[in-house]
Amino acid sequence: MPIIGSVIKGLIDVTGSITGDSDPIAEQKEVLKSLLERAEETQFGIAHNFSEILSSENIQRTFAETVPYFDYDSINTKWWKKLHEGEENVTWPGNPDYFALSSGTTGKTSKRIPVTEDMIKAIRWAGIKQVLALSNFDFPSDFFEKGILMLGSSTDLIKQEDHLEGEISGISASNIPSWFRGYYKPGEEIAKIDDWDERVEKIVEEAPNWDIGGLSGIPSWIELMLKEVIKAHNLKNIHEIWPNLEVYTSGGVAFGPYEKSFNALMGRPITVIDTYLASEGFIAFQARPETDAMKLVTDNGIYFEFVPFDPDQIQEDGSLSLDAKSLTLSEVEKGQNYVLIISTVSGAWRYLIGDTIEFTDVERAEIKITGRTKFFLNTVGSQLSVNKLDDALQELEHTFDVEVPEYTLCAKKYEDGFYHTWYLGTNAQLDSNEAAKALDDSLKKANKNYKVARSKALQGVKVFVVKPDVFYGWNDQNKKKGGQVKMERVMDEEKFSEWEDFVDKQN
């Protein structure tokens, strides 16, 4: 038995048993109190009476009643822009050391989200907690001696006057602890390469020299990288070159739509662990193998609030109505859909991150992401979240025994009414009419609002089948290839028109 692996595994097991069960509700109260105390003398803290909030009998409720909601545009326009004008102590003490450039799913890179040294420490500690949680998974001792291939954004950050800029995965990778560097692949030199294709080319060259035990990254780009390694080395599957590959840490998007195509690249099943790392912080990770839900990080620099998801409370731009009521962790219920609101050690306050979540276990504070506020398809009352769309797609893959790693859709108006118009990315032979009927039937069974909409203004489903490369080309055209890039699952009609023009040019 490998000595180093045994020591690490033993340390993880012992530490995990010592930490025991936590009290997420109590932890969240302490986190909010700490955030308010740290930011009490900032410009934001003075403007929003943090001193009075701290002296109130119910800090959580007073905080919610005193501080308004912010999305990126509103907090950036009123507060964060001051950081770029040389002001200090704006929404958090001092100045941020980094800004995370968010390329997300909304088009060009436009958001510059502050990342403080406190947030770097919080992300690092959340990562350690996730490692400790591996004691709940049955990995062999020698797994803890293998390399971890993290395929994120470039670590060659952009130097500005008083800070560095880059995507959050690049910022995080550039701040990995020294003890982890021996395990980290592709290594600092390759990780700095900005061009994604060039970086993958170097990974392909080095692949035979590495003993990889774990992968980490967004599913679509991990798949493309694995395909390049398999193709270049004439392999049947990735385990022929990395026989000790045991785990894949997924993040950024739901893994479900990629499950079938991802597994086709494996020589045997591996463990998939979900994580929730956003530009605004490390929010949650899967802590145990009995579920694919993720545990909120409730004791580490982020305070959470939850607004019951009501389509009437969501504005066209994805923001919340100002009178929408928020709930604390002690007030949420299992199985309900909530808009996630966060306040953080980077100076985000009651910030609409843009995701909707659902609790699968309230006591453990375990959640799953159900969609995006901007990607909620509610045209003519169909009320479909991304997880419902993902579920329908997975059912289609099972029914027709095909792999469909990418898709997007729009509630598009035709002469005879609205149709949910899907584009499916697959290399398989798939009949569009049969696929449309399967998706329609699946959504009728899964969502009563959709079924009602189908009896009224929603006329049906249209399906167009294209190659997955069309989706990757779309992302590349929008300067979004690799890294934290996620394909838009739902588009508005204006964006969808651009998409269809792009698709036409590929034919």
Automatic annotation (TrEMBL):
Residues 297-362 form the GH3 middle domain. Residues 389-494 form the GH3 C-terminal domain. GO terms for molecular function: acid-amino acid ligase activity. InterPro entries: GH3, GH3_C, GH3_M. GO terms for cellular component: cytoplasm. PANTHER family: GH3 DOMAIN-CONTAINING PROTEIN. This is GH3 auxin-responsive promoter. It comes from Maribacter algicola.
